[in-house]
Specification:
The chain is mainly beta. The chain has a single domain, classed as Beta-galactosidase, Chain A, domain 5 (Distorted Sandwich). The strands form three sheets. Strands 6-7-8-9-21-18-17-12-15 form a nine-stranded antiparallel β-sheet, with no helix packed on it. Strands 5, 10, 11, 13, 14, 16, 19 and 20 form an eight-stranded antiparallel β-sheet that branches. The structure holds 6-O-phosphono-beta-D-tagatofuranose. 6-O-phosphono-beta-D-tagatofuranose binds next to strand 19 and strand 20. The site of 6-O-phosphono-beta-D-tagatofuranose has 11 residues, from strand 19 and strand 20.
Length: 278
């Protein structure tokens, strides 16, 4: 039987690749526990990762599924999106199953994290791929003696053929904070079409979303993440080619409006599930 997973180097950094028996595959960077690539069975890459992303220890990598923890964005005094995305995680396991493949990574508090955020925690990220579906679960346990609160997100960069042809269904009727204007509004169109910079936090997002492109339909579901963030910079970024914003849309499973509070010994887990419909 051939070996179906490997612990390898990706852009000079430690990574693991999991491959399911049907051919679906995913690459996860140990720094940040960041899924960088997901290719479902008999399909092309579904995640956007910038070809000019910077792979330097301690720097955030632009693309894939960064883990934001214990702070979302700049909504607090910590570094933007917290520290989990720039910390080295430990690989616990990576193996194929009968019809899937799984890997699990862990990040515990350490001297560096305690300097930024004085709490004892254990994060576990579990990535499962099977057929045309990926299931990413983030769990957090309070391993200390005092309660803490955190906001978090799976900051998923979805790869697009062209943003102008993409439509995101399932947000209608939800109230959102437009981070660009600072105003709260209610989503009215049946489908969101992005034709300018967008940075929104949708609250109480319990329905599945559907990202439609002429040749693709991707279903996006989440559990225990109450909010959805939709972001596209609509312009150049230092670590992304100038026109590449056309090739990506971030649809993020998040806990922002009501942060998670954990008492000592308590655990929380949330997940985002992506599945290709066609
Ligand atoms: O999730 C959207 C967002 O918070 C935006 O406001 C935008 O700045 C983006 O994340 C990227 O943040 P980063 O720190 O990775 O440049």
């Amino acid at each position: 039987m051939s070996k179906t997973f490997s612990i390898s180097r990706h852009q000079g950094m430690d990574a693991t690749e999991i491959v399911a028996p049907g051919g679906a595959r995913a690459t996860v960077l140990l720094q940040g526990g960041q899924v960088l690539s997901w290719q479902p069975e008999a399909a092309s890459e579904q995640l956007y990762c910038s070809p000019t992303a910077v792979y330097v220890p301690g720097k955030a990598v632009r693309g894939g599924i960064p883990v934001c923890f214990p702070q979302f964005g700049k909504l607090g005094a910590l570094p933007a999106h917290g520290f989990a995305r720039t910390q080295p995680w430990q690989l616990l396991m990576a193996e194929p199953g009968v019809d899937d493949a799984l890997c699990a990574l862990r990040l515990e508090d350490n001297e560096a994290t305690r300097k930024i955020w004085p709490h004892a925690f254990a994060l576990e990220l579990t990535v499962r791929i099977a057929g045309r579906r990926i299931d990413v679960e983030l769990a957090c346990e309070n391993t200390g003696t005092e309660a803490f609160e955190f906001s978090t997100a799976l900051h998923t960069y979805l790869r697009l053929d062209d943003l102008v042809d993409a439509r995101l269904h399932g947000l209608q009727g939800l109230s959102y904070l437009d981070k660009l204007s600072g105003k709260t509004q209610v989503e009215t169109p049946d489908a969101l079409r992005v034709n300018a910079e967008v940075d929104r936090v949708y609250a109480h997002a319990s329905r599945a979303l559907l990202l439609r492109e002429p040749k693709r339909a991707l279903r996006i579901e989440q559990e225990a993440f109450a909010d959805v963030v939709v972001w596209n910079p609509w312009g150049a970024m230092a670590d992304m080619p100038d026109d590449d914003y056309h090739q990506m849309l971030c649809v993020e499973a998040a806990r922002i409006n009501h942060p998670v509070k954990l008492e000592p010994g308590e655990e929380w887990a949330g997940r985002q599930i992506l599945s290709l419909d066609n």
